[in-house]
Amino acid sequence: MHKTAWTQKGSALPSDRIPPKKQTPQPTKAKGKQKDVGPPKSKEVVKLEKLRDDLRNATGKERDPKRGCFCQARMHPLSSYTPICRTCGLILCELNLPNFACPHCGEATLLLAARNALIATLDAQINEAVAKEEEDRTRAIQEARAAEGAFPTLSAAASRASTPGSGSDSQASHPVNQTHKVLSLNSKTRKIKVESYTPPAISRAASAEKVKQPEPEYKRVPAPPAEVVVSRTQPDPQRPWANTRGLNVTYVPPSRI
Protein backbone atom coordinates (compact mmCIF):
# COMPACT_ATOMS: atom_id res chain seq x y z
CA MET A 1 0.00 0.00 0.00
CA HIS A 2 1.29 3.41 -0.86
CA LYS A 3 2.02 5.33 2.29
CA THR A 4 1.71 9.00 2.71
CA ALA A 5 2.37 11.41 5.49
CA TRP A 6 -1.13 11.01 6.90
CA THR A 7 -1.13 7.17 7.02
CA GLN A 8 -0.13 5.25 10.13
CA LYS A 9 0.53 1.63 10.99
CA GLY A 10 -2.43 -0.54 11.86
CA SER A 11 -4.82 1.29 9.58
CA ALA A 12 -6.81 -0.69 7.09
CA LEU A 13 -7.75 2.30 4.99
CA PRO A 14 -5.95 5.57 4.59
CA SER A 15 -9.23 7.42 4.87
CA ASP A 16 -9.60 6.23 8.46
CA ARG A 17 -6.82 8.54 9.48
CA ILE A 18 -8.29 11.62 7.87
CA PRO A 19 -9.71 13.78 10.62
CA PRO A 20 -13.33 14.65 9.95
CA LYS A 21 -14.13 18.23 9.18
CA LYS A 22 -15.81 20.10 11.94
CA GLN A 23 -19.00 21.61 10.71
CA THR A 24 -19.49 25.00 12.21
CA PRO A 25 -22.96 26.41 11.95
CA GLN A 26 -23.01 29.48 9.78
CA PRO A 27 -24.54 32.51 11.42
CA THR A 28 -27.76 33.52 9.83
CA LYS A 29 -27.60 36.92 8.27
CA ALA A 30 -30.25 39.29 9.43
CA LYS A 31 -32.25 40.71 6.58
CA GLY A 32 -32.41 44.07 8.22
CA LYS A 33 -31.95 45.77 11.49
CA GLN A 34 -35.12 45.24 13.42
CA LYS A 35 -35.92 48.31 15.40
CA ASP A 36 -37.98 48.16 18.53
CA VAL A 37 -40.93 50.13 17.29
CA GLY A 38 -43.13 51.16 20.19
CA PRO A 39 -46.59 52.67 20.14
CA PRO A 40 -46.90 56.01 18.36
CA LYS A 41 -46.52 59.08 20.50
CA SER A 42 -49.32 61.55 21.00
CA LYS A 43 -49.14 65.15 19.86
CA GLU A 44 -48.70 66.34 23.45
CA VAL A 45 -45.65 64.12 24.04
CA VAL A 46 -44.10 65.06 20.69
CA LYS A 47 -44.61 68.75 21.44
CA LEU A 48 -43.03 68.47 24.89
CA GLU A 49 -40.08 66.47 23.59
CA LYS A 50 -39.42 68.98 20.82
CA LEU A 51 -39.50 71.88 23.27
CA ARG A 52 -37.15 70.05 25.64
CA ASP A 53 -34.67 69.24 22.85
CA ASP A 54 -34.81 72.81 21.54
CA LEU A 55 -34.04 74.13 25.02
CA ARG A 56 -31.07 71.79 25.36
CA ASN A 57 -29.59 72.81 22.01
CA ALA A 58 -30.36 76.53 22.22
CA THR A 59 -28.25 79.30 23.70
CA GLY A 60 -31.15 81.69 24.27
CA LYS A 61 -29.93 84.23 21.71
CA GLU A 62 -31.59 82.68 18.67
CA ARG A 63 -34.34 84.72 17.05
CA ASP A 64 -37.71 83.23 16.30
CA PRO A 65 -37.93 82.69 12.52
CA LYS A 66 -41.62 83.61 12.76
CA ARG A 67 -40.64 86.89 14.50
CA GLY A 68 -42.63 86.17 17.63
CA CYS A 69 -45.88 87.84 18.59
CA PHE A 70 -46.51 91.29 20.07
CA CYS A 71 -50.11 90.81 21.19
CA GLN A 72 -48.98 91.01 24.85
CA ALA A 73 -51.36 88.19 25.80
CA ARG A 74 -54.39 90.05 24.38
CA MET A 75 -55.06 87.59 21.53
CA HIS A 76 -53.32 84.48 22.89
CA PRO A 77 -52.95 83.07 26.41
CA LEU A 78 -50.05 84.16 28.56
CA SER A 79 -46.92 82.03 28.25
CA SER A 80 -46.63 79.52 31.09
CA TYR A 81 -42.83 79.33 30.70
CA THR A 82 -41.72 82.94 30.17
CA PRO A 83 -44.64 85.33 30.83
CA ILE A 84 -42.47 88.47 30.73
CA CYS A 85 -39.08 89.52 29.40
CA ARG A 86 -36.70 90.29 32.26
CA THR A 87 -34.85 92.92 30.21
CA CYS A 88 -37.45 95.07 28.46
CA GLY A 89 -40.62 93.99 30.30
CA LEU A 90 -42.52 92.85 27.19
CA ILE A 91 -45.48 90.63 28.05
CA LEU A 92 -45.03 87.34 26.17
CA CYS A 93 -47.86 85.12 24.99
CA GLU A 94 -47.65 81.36 24.43
CA LEU A 95 -46.50 81.80 20.81
CA ASN A 96 -43.17 83.13 22.09
CA LEU A 97 -41.29 79.92 22.88
CA PRO A 98 -38.76 79.97 25.74
CA ASN A 99 -35.89 78.67 23.58
CA PHE A 100 -35.95 81.88 21.52
CA ALA A 101 -34.84 85.35 22.49
CA CYS A 102 -37.21 88.20 23.23
CA PRO A 103 -38.71 89.43 19.95
CA HIS A 104 -38.27 93.06 21.02
CA CYS A 105 -34.87 93.44 22.70
CA GLY A 106 -33.25 90.19 21.54
CA GLU A 107 -32.10 89.14 25.02
CA ALA A 108 -32.51 85.65 26.48
CA THR A 109 -35.76 85.18 28.35
CA LEU A 110 -34.37 82.49 30.68
CA LEU A 111 -31.28 82.28 32.84
CA LEU A 112 -29.16 79.13 32.77
CA ALA A 113 -30.54 77.87 36.08
CA ALA A 114 -34.11 78.59 35.01
CA ARG A 115 -33.52 76.79 31.69
CA ASN A 116 -32.18 73.69 33.45
CA ALA A 117 -35.12 73.72 35.85
CA LEU A 118 -37.54 74.01 32.94
CA ILE A 119 -35.86 71.06 31.16
CA ALA A 120 -36.25 68.95 34.32
CA THR A 121 -39.91 69.97 34.54
CA LEU A 122 -40.48 69.01 30.90
CA ASP A 123 -38.85 65.61 31.50
CA ALA A 124 -41.23 64.99 34.40
CA GLN A 125 -44.22 66.04 32.29
CA ILE A 126 -43.12 63.74 29.45
CA ASN A 127 -42.74 60.74 31.77
CA GLU A 128 -46.12 61.45 33.35
CA ALA A 129 -47.83 61.77 29.96
CA VAL A 130 -46.23 58.55 28.64
CA ALA A 131 -47.26 56.64 31.78
CA LYS A 132 -50.82 57.93 31.52
CA GLU A 133 -51.06 56.98 27.83
CA GLU A 134 -49.73 53.50 28.62
CA GLU A 135 -52.36 53.07 31.34
CA ASP A 136 -55.11 54.22 28.98
CA ARG A 137 -53.83 51.86 26.28
CA THR A 138 -53.72 48.90 28.66
CA ARG A 139 -57.17 49.73 30.01
CA ALA A 140 -58.60 49.93 26.48
CA ILE A 141 -57.11 46.54 25.58
CA GLN A 142 -58.48 44.96 28.76
CA GLU A 143 -61.93 46.44 28.20
CA ALA A 144 -61.99 45.24 24.58
CA ARG A 145 -60.80 41.79 25.64
CA ALA A 146 -63.40 41.58 28.39
CA ALA A 147 -66.17 42.75 26.05
CA GLU A 148 -65.28 40.32 23.27
CA GLY A 149 -63.96 37.44 25.36
CA ALA A 150 -61.71 34.60 24.29
CA PHE A 151 -63.11 31.77 22.16
CA PRO A 152 -64.25 28.98 24.54
CA THR A 153 -62.25 25.75 24.43
CA LEU A 154 -62.62 22.47 26.31
CA SER A 155 -59.20 22.76 27.92
CA ALA A 156 -59.90 26.28 29.09
CA ALA A 157 -63.30 25.28 30.43
CA ALA A 158 -61.82 22.29 32.27
CA SER A 159 -59.01 24.32 33.78
CA ARG A 160 -61.44 27.06 34.77
CA ALA A 161 -63.70 24.50 36.44
CA SER A 162 -60.82 22.79 38.27
CA THR A 163 -59.02 25.96 39.37
CA PRO A 164 -61.42 28.77 40.18
CA GLY A 165 -60.11 32.28 39.89
CA SER A 166 -57.81 31.53 36.95
CA GLY A 167 -59.78 33.48 34.38
CA SER A 168 -56.94 35.88 33.72
CA ASP A 169 -54.54 32.95 33.07
CA SER A 170 -56.90 31.39 30.55
CA GLN A 171 -57.25 34.70 28.76
CA ALA A 172 -53.48 35.04 28.67
CA SER A 173 -53.06 31.52 27.20
CA HIS A 174 -55.85 32.13 24.67
CA PRO A 175 -55.53 35.65 23.32
CA VAL A 176 -58.42 37.31 21.60
CA ASN A 177 -56.84 37.32 18.14
CA GLN A 178 -55.91 33.61 18.20
CA THR A 179 -57.10 31.46 15.28
CA HIS A 180 -59.61 28.72 16.20
CA LYS A 181 -61.11 25.84 14.27
CA VAL A 182 -64.89 25.62 14.29
CA LEU A 183 -66.73 22.37 13.57
CA SER A 184 -70.22 22.72 12.13
CA LEU A 185 -72.69 20.03 11.07
CA ASN A 186 -74.88 20.60 8.04
CA SER A 187 -78.40 19.39 8.82
CA LYS A 188 -79.20 18.63 5.17
CA THR A 189 -76.07 16.91 3.94
CA ARG A 190 -75.07 15.50 7.33
CA LYS A 191 -71.49 16.52 6.64
CA ILE A 192 -69.04 18.06 9.03
CA LYS A 193 -67.53 21.34 7.95
CA VAL A 194 -64.31 22.66 9.45
CA GLU A 195 -63.73 26.40 9.35
CA SER A 196 -61.07 28.66 10.81
CA TYR A 197 -62.14 31.66 12.81
CA THR A 198 -59.87 34.54 13.74
CA PRO A 199 -61.31 37.40 15.80
CA PRO A 200 -60.29 40.87 14.66
CA ALA A 201 -57.10 42.15 16.21
CA ILE A 202 -57.38 44.82 18.84
CA SER A 203 -56.24 48.12 17.47
CA ARG A 204 -54.09 50.25 19.73
CA ALA A 205 -55.61 53.39 21.13
CA ALA A 206 -52.77 55.53 19.84
CA SER A 207 -52.85 54.01 16.36
CA ALA A 208 -56.52 54.89 16.04
CA GLU A 209 -55.65 58.54 15.64
CA LYS A 210 -56.57 60.19 12.40
CA VAL A 211 -54.10 61.21 9.78
CA LYS A 212 -51.76 63.85 11.11
CA GLN A 213 -53.03 67.26 10.23
CA PRO A 214 -50.77 70.27 9.99
CA GLU A 215 -50.84 72.54 12.99
CA PRO A 216 -52.96 75.64 12.45
CA GLU A 217 -51.13 78.88 11.81
CA TYR A 218 -52.00 81.38 14.50
CA LYS A 219 -52.42 85.02 13.67
CA ARG A 220 -49.42 86.92 15.03
CA VAL A 221 -49.32 90.59 15.89
CA PRO A 222 -46.31 92.18 14.17
CA ALA A 223 -43.84 94.43 15.90
CA PRO A 224 -44.77 98.12 16.19
CA PRO A 225 -43.24 100.46 13.61
CA ALA A 226 -39.81 101.84 14.39
CA GLU A 227 -40.91 105.40 13.61
CA VAL A 228 -43.50 107.02 15.86
CA VAL A 229 -46.10 109.08 14.01
CA VAL A 230 -46.16 112.56 15.54
CA SER A 231 -48.84 115.11 14.76
CA ARG A 232 -47.65 118.46 13.45
CA THR A 233 -50.80 120.24 14.65
CA GLN A 234 -50.57 122.28 17.82
CA PRO A 235 -53.01 121.19 20.54
CA ASP A 236 -56.05 123.36 21.17
CA PRO A 237 -55.89 125.03 24.61
CA GLN A 238 -59.65 124.63 24.93
CA ARG A 239 -59.44 120.91 24.10
CA PRO A 240 -55.99 119.65 25.06
CA TRP A 241 -57.23 116.07 25.04
CA ALA A 242 -58.32 116.16 21.39
CA ASN A 243 -56.73 113.73 18.97
CA THR A 244 -54.71 115.91 16.61
CA ARG A 245 -53.95 112.99 14.28
CA GLY A 246 -57.56 112.76 13.18
CA LEU A 247 -60.08 110.06 13.94
CA ASN A 248 -62.09 112.41 16.12
CA VAL A 249 -64.76 110.78 18.21
CA THR A 250 -68.23 112.30 18.40
CA TYR A 251 -70.33 111.65 21.46
CA VAL A 252 -73.76 110.21 20.66
CA PRO A 253 -76.23 110.35 23.57
CA PRO A 254 -78.34 107.26 24.15
CA SER A 255 -81.78 107.32 22.61
CA ARG A 256 -84.76 107.64 24.90
CA ILE A 257 -87.56 105.16 24.44
TrEMBL record:
A single GO BP: rescue of stalled ribosome
Chain segments annotated as coiled-coil in the UniProt record: none
Organism: Dichomitus squalens
Single GO MF annotation: zinc ion binding
Bias (Polar residues): 1-10, 160-183
Residue ranges constituting the TRIP4/RQT4 C2HC5-type zinc finger domain according to the UniProt record: 66-119
GO cellular component: nucleus; RQC-trigger complex
Residue ranges, annotated region (Disordered): 1-46, 152-183, 204-247
Pfam family, one: zf-C2HC5
Domain of life: Eukaryota
Descriptive protein name: TRIP4/RQT4 C2HC5-type zinc finger domain-containing protein
Ranges of biased composition (kind: Basic and acidic residues): 33-46, 207-220
